[in-house]
User: What shape does this take?
Amino acid sequence: MKIAISQPTYLPWLGYFDLVDQVDKFVLLDTVQFEKQSWQQRNRIKTPTGLEWLTVPVKIKGRSTQIIEEVEIAAPEFYKRHLNLVHAHYRTTHYFKDCFPQLSAILEESCRDRLAVLNFRLIEWLMASLGITVPLILSSTLKVEGTRSALNLAICERLCATKYHSAIGSAVYLLPDVDLFARKGIEVCFQNYAHPEYRQLFPSFCPYASTLDLIFNEGPRSLEIIRSGRGNPLSPAQVALQQNPAQR
Assistant: This one.
């Protein structure tokens, strides 16, 4: 049983779905503290002048310690601006007519829900558009506690995982605790991803846009393109060497 764990982000990038595509179950971590102006509430689309932010306004005044599942959307009408921008910059793409109505429906139906609900539905839709069928699990449904490595380990144990496939960004806190996973019979590895190029409007190519950019431009080829950036998972020892070249 291989699992990955990540926060529910807004219209995630390609690497997010590469991680989802490699595991048996994917956990959306909605029980950790919300960080304003993070990927949890925003992402980018391609425009003639480069990448432009789409940001979901949320209620933060007096809520500095709120967790992700508690975050409320502040101005539901935000979705109109987001759809107008997507329409303006993607209406001439090959697969716009296939994807835009579904995006519109989700944003309009979910704009008054909490942020985590909106993100869950968008991630679910993007997975379906890509052809990824991995089950999504909200950490709030697992009733486990802890922070950082301890929380991830508790989730792995709760789901009877034998392998934890982590995003490379988590290595900064996860590497010192790899032995804790090993003692529980859980192997830790890290994602190894190089962003691929694909057909994109407005030269030159800009990586790290929302996966919306990929599916509007490439449609049925999108998952194949995501997988083309995948390298072999990295062991903790390999990641440690990358981060500390002097140890070689």
Q: What stands out?
A: The mean pLDDT is 95. The first strand starts at residue 2 and ends at 6.
